[in-house]
Design brief:
The protein is α+β, with helices and mostly antiparallel strands. It has a single domain, classed as Clam (outer membrane lipoprotein receptor (LolB), chain A), CATH 2.50.20. It has two helices and 13 strands. A seven-stranded antiparallel β-sheet has the order 4-3-2-1-13-12-11, covered by helices on one side. Strands 5, 6, 7, 8, 9 and 10 form a six-stranded antiparallel β-sheet that branches. The radius of gyration is 17 Å and the shape is globular. The two termini are about 15 Å apart.
Length: about 220
Amino acid sequence: MKKAILLLSILFIIGCKNENKEATSSEEKQVETLAQKIAWAHGFDNFEDVEEIKFTFNVRVGDSVRTSRSWHWKTNSDEIRLTEGDISRTYIKDSSIADDEKELDQKFINDSYWLLFPFQLVWSDAEISEEKKAEAPISKKEMRNITVSYPSEGGYTPGDSYEIFFEDDLLLKEWIYKSADGTRESPTTWENYEDFKGLKIAKSHKSPDGSFELFFSGIEVN
């Protein structure tokens, strides 16, 4: 299995890990199985064949693109290159990131997290709630819903959580980002899915009124 570290102080969690845990309740097993199914629905089982991913992360506010930065991630070596304007920088993502690379790493974590969030349900050490039915924030449709919560310590944004909304195909349709201090809630869509070598990626995320859009361009998976 390839090393793939994307968010906070992540430990890669192998899907069958908890089969060897003795004191796991049936409810915990059910929740974990759902998390795995969501990741697999987005193509997680194809990630081990991926050698590199290229993508451009863009943010549009109103009619203006405020942010645009391109990434080239070699997943075997975790060599990551950022190109932003006329500047290009490369670093290796490992357990000992130099201080002068942390700003670069924080940008990569943010951008790749939006790109491949469903895989975090397997990769990260997030706590996942029991499934329930709830009204999605933008479409107002009743959907399946779970909360993904991150530890209060470690990483760049500890304590953040995400309410994710999905239907029976298990593809994310909407989510609500909630900051740890409770001062910010941001609902956006998950839409414009496209299949890239078996990875199902939502290329667009829009706010309820459409004035904000986070979108990806130039996606290549090899």
